Amino acid sequence: MSYKLKLNQIRAILSLEVKLESAKTTDGSIVNYERLEAGFPIFQEDGTTPLAEGDYTLEDGTAFKVDADGLIMEVIPPTETPEAPEAPETEVTIEAAEPSVDPTKPEEPAAPTEEELMKKIADDVKTCMEAIVALADEVAQMKSKLQMAEQKVNEFAKRPATTKIPKVSVPDETKVDRMESIINVIKHAMSNKK
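The structure corresponding to this sequence follows.
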């Protein structure tokens, strides 16, 4: 599978619009393609069904071959008709003027080529995929921690809130006897905690 087809698949996944051009073949059928170059897919009139394997010629005389996967294998430009002989040229000497360069104006960078753009898109997709994988790992770790916390909360909820304090019935005696009874209750409660 060519890298051009993979890039088209990536564009489709990212919901980037792939603009198709249409052309008519010599037999009258319509074909759709992104680029009429080797390695690019070519489709029938509906724009989704790959063109059948074979040799085709467009109305403008351009011929192309399609493989079994619907990919263009070869493009043959139209044959040119021989031109009428040109009139003899007279020699003219033209002196080339030196281009005027404004030293204060910075040079504009050259526009990136299609290959550079495709490489940048592929690099950006790779970076996005790495970020998605890292994010998925973090989500999985957080989910695991959340499940552990939920399990601990459930265990804690099953425990009794406090130990039961025994009821103390203090006879109406003296204040000293009451104090001793309270001290005994506290000692008893403290020994249960151990």
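DSSP finds three helices and six strands in the chain.
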